[in-house]
Design goal:
The chain has 436 residues and is of the alpha+beta class. It has 3 domains: 117 residues, 2-Layer Sandwich (Beta-Lactamase), CATH 3.30.450; 152 residues, Beta-Lactamase (2-Layer Sandwich), CATH 3.30.450; 149 residues, 2-Layer Sandwich (Alpha-Beta Plaits), CATH 3.30.70.270. It is built from 14 helices and 17 strands. The strands form 4 sheets. Strands 2-1-5-4-3 form a 5-stranded antiparallel sheet, sandwiched between helices. Strands 7-6-10-9-8 form a 5-stranded antiparallel sheet, sandwiched between helices. Strands 12-13-11-16-17 form a 5-stranded mixed sheet, sandwiched between helices. The chain is elongated and about 105 Å long. It starts with a helix and ends with a strand. The N terminus is likely disordered.
Length: 436
C-alpha cells in the first residue's frame, strides 16, 4: 500500500463517501462490459434481495424479467454507444421470486471500461398505477359489457394484470336458496373438486369478510362484499411467493369491493332490462321487444326480398279453466303454453306474450307459405295435448291467425291486424285451427 498521505486521505474520503452511498434507498451499480456486477451499494441488497457477495460477479441479465430482456439489451447497446439513459424502465426478479419494477439512469464510462447505473425501485408507484387502472377498467366493464358472463371474463383479465394467476373462479352465493354456483371458471380448473371443497367450508367463508389463504393448495379466496352481505367469492390460484403476503391481502380486499359492486350493478341492470323487455310470468318477449324485432325483420326481408310470417295465437277455453281452477293454475297454464310454443319454432324466431292468453310468433325467414302452415299445424297439435297442472288434467286448444309478408302487407300494423282478424275467424269457426 502506498505511504503517500494524499492517497491515504483519498481512501478515507472514499470510505466516508461509501458510507453515505449505502444510506441511499436507490441502488448504485457498476458492471463490466459483459454486464457482470463489479460494485453495488447497500441499496442493491434491499432492491434485489441478494447480498452483495451473491451479486458480485453475477450477470445482471439473469435477473431481468424474461419479457423485458430484449428491451434491456437494446438499452445496453445504446449506452455502450455513448447514449446516456435516464428514464429506462424494466422488471427484475428478486431472490424471493417477487417482481420489482426499476427506473434506471445509466452511463458508459469508456476510460474505466465499465457502466455505472442508478436504479430506483418504482414498484409501489407501478402497483398504484395498476390498481387505479384496474378500478377504472372494472367500472367501465360494469357499464359496457353486454352480459354478466362477459363481465366475469373481463374481471379475470383485469385480475391477471395485478397478480400472477393461473386459475380463476367466481363463485356466487344465493342467500335465499343457500346454493353456491360457479358463475365463471377458467378452463383448467377442476370445478367438481373445488365445489366440494367450498361446500364443506361454506359457512366459514360466506360469513367471513376476510381474505382466506389456502397455502397447501395455493388458493386465495376473496369474499365479494357489498355493504349488506357477502354475495360470493373470487377464488384464484397464484404463485407460492404471493400467498399470504400483506400486499396481496390488501390488494385483494380492496379490489373485491369494486368487483362486488360491479357484479351487483350489472345484475341490477340486467334485471331492469329484463323487466322492461320481457314478460315477467312466461319470460317471453313483451310488446316492446317484439316491436323492435319485428321492425328489424321487416327491414331485412324487404332488403333481401325474402318472406316472413306472423302468427297471432289465442288459447281456446282458457278463461273457463282460469275461472274453474283459479289464477295460480291459470298462470301455470300460460307458462306451459309458452314453453310448448317455443318448442315448435327455431331459436332465431321470436315468441312474445301480448297479454292475457294472447301470443304472437315471428318467423323471420320462410321459403314458402307452406313453411308457415307446417309450423302452425305443429303448434296446434302441441297445444291440443292435455295440460297437467297440480294433478289436474286440463284440455285446451288454440286458434291461430297467420299473416305473410309481402302477401298481406309490408308494415307491422297491417300484418298484425291481418293476423288478429284471421285468429278471430279461426275462433269463430270453433277454434283448434289456423287460418291465413
Amino acid at each position: 500500500m502506498s505511504s503517500d498521505p494524499n492517497y491515504l486521505l483519498d481512501q478515507k474520503k472514499l470510505e466516508s463517501l461509501s458510507h453515505y452511498i449505502d444510506m441511499l434507498l436507490d441502488a448504485i451499480c457498476i458492471v463490466d462490459k459483459e454486464g457482470h456486477f463489479l460494485f453495488l451499494s447497500a441499496g442493491a441488497e434491499r432492491i434485489f434481495g441478494y447480498s452483495r457477495e451473491e451479486l458480485l460477479g453475477k450477470q445482471m441479465l439473469e435477473m431481468v424479467h424474461p419479457d423485458d430482456r430484449e428491451a434491456t439489451l437494446n438499452a445496453v447497446d445504446d449506452i455502450m454507444n455513448g447514449l446516456e439513459k435516464t428514464d429506462f424502465e424494466n422488471r427484475y426478479i428478486r431472490k424471493d421470486g417477487q417482481i420489482v419494477y426499476l427506473l434506471w439512469s445509466a452511463k458508459w464510462a469508456s476510460n474505466e471500461a465499465f457502466r455505472i447505473a442508478v436504479a430506483r425501485d418504482i414498484s409501489r408507484h407501478k402497483r398504484a398505477e395498476a390498481i387505479q387502472s384496474a378500478m377504472y377498467a372494472i367500472s367501465e366493464a360494469a357499464h359496457h359489457e353486454e352480459s354478466l358472463s362477459s363481465l366475469y371474463k373481463r374481471i379475470h383479465q383485469i385480475m391477471e394484470t395485478l397478480l400472477p394467476i393461473s386459475d380463476f373462479v367466481i363463485a356466487l352465493y344465493d342467500q335465499q336458496t343457500q346454493l353456491l354456483t360457479f358463475a365463471y371458471t377458467s378452463s383448467d380448473v377442476d370445478g367438481e373438486l373445488l365445489h366440494a371443497h367450498l361446500s364443506q367450508n361454506l359457512t366459514s367463508w360466506i360469513d367471513s369478510r376476510k381474505v382466506c389463504f389456502d397455502t397447501d393448495n395455493g388458493w386465495i379466496k376473496v369474499p365479494l362484499c357489498t355493504a349488506e352481505r357477502v354475495i360470493g367469492s373470487l377464488i384464484a390460484r397464484v404463485e407460492a411467493q404471493h400467498i399470504n403476503t400483506e400486499d396481496s391481502q390488501h390488494l385483494l380486499e380492496y379490489i373485491s369491493t369494486q368487483v362486488a359492486a360491479a357484479i351487483t350493478r350489472k345484475q341490477l341492470h340486467d334485471r331492469l332490462r329484463f323487466l322492461a323487455m320481457y314478460d315477467h310470468l312466461t319470460g317471453l318477449a313483451n310488446r316492446e321487444l317484439f316491436h323492435d324485432r319485428m321492425q328489424l325483420a321487416i327491414a331485412r326481408a324487404l332488403r333481401q326480398k325474402t318472406e316472413l310470417a306472423l302468427f297471432y295465437l289465442d288459447l281456446d277455453n282458457f278463461k273457463q279453466a282460469n275461472d274453474t281452477f283459479g289464477h295460480d293454475v291459470g298462470d301455470a297454464l300460460l307458462q306451459q303454453a309458452a314453453e310448448r310454443i317455443q318448442s315448435c319454432v327455431r331459436s332465431s324466431d321470436t315468441v312474445a306474450r301480448f297479454g292475457g292468453d294472447e301470443f304472437v310468433v315471428l318467423l323471420e325467414t320462410i321459403s314458402h307459405q307452406q313453411d308457415a302452415k307446417s309450423i302452425a299445424e305443429k303448434i296446434r297439435q302441441t297445444m291440443a295435448k292435455v295440460f297437467i297442472v297440480g294433478g289436474c288434467e286440463i284440455h285446451l286448444s288454440s286458434s291461430i291467425g297467420i299473416a305473410l309478408l309481402p302477401v298481406h302487407g309490408d308494415v307491422e300494423k297491417t300484418l298484425l291486424q291481418h293476423a288478429d282478424h284471421a285468429m278471430y275467424e279461426a275462433k269463430r269457426l270453433g277454434g283448434n285451427q289456423y287460418i291465413i
